[in-house]
Amino acid sequence: MIQYPMSFPVSASSSSGIQKRWTSEAQLQKLTLAIPPEFEGPGEGLSPEDLYALALQNCFIATFKVFAEKSRLSFEAINTEAVLQVDRDENGKPWMARFHLKVKLLGVEQKESAQRLLEKTSQGCMILNSVKTAKTFEFQVG
Prior knowledge:
CATH architecture of the largest domain: 2-Layer Sandwich
Number of helices: 3
Oligomer: single chain
Largest sheet: 3 strands, antiparallel
Helix content: 25-40%
């Protein structure tokens, strides 16, 4: 049984200057981060925008895997591609405006059940439900 509330601690450390990369850590995994060139940084590391898009994408995958397991839906692979668009809102503030996720589900015999689970996942993923970014989905079941 899942117990709430849950905590997920993370840490980061950086020196000054937008051209300097820094490290963040979660679950004893260190990541190198950098300001992307679009914001006059050096790139050469994951950006906060990358992490945001990865969180949305991978929450979808994790949620689908749980739903598929509980529904006894077998599949060979789930492959995703996503695009996050950063834009300015009506007040001129930059924000994560749109997120489009393409999902290919391979090696599925129960195609209708798989399609329903993909739709359910798009509505049931807690990180996707926690953001105001506009989200669109494209599903291919094969």
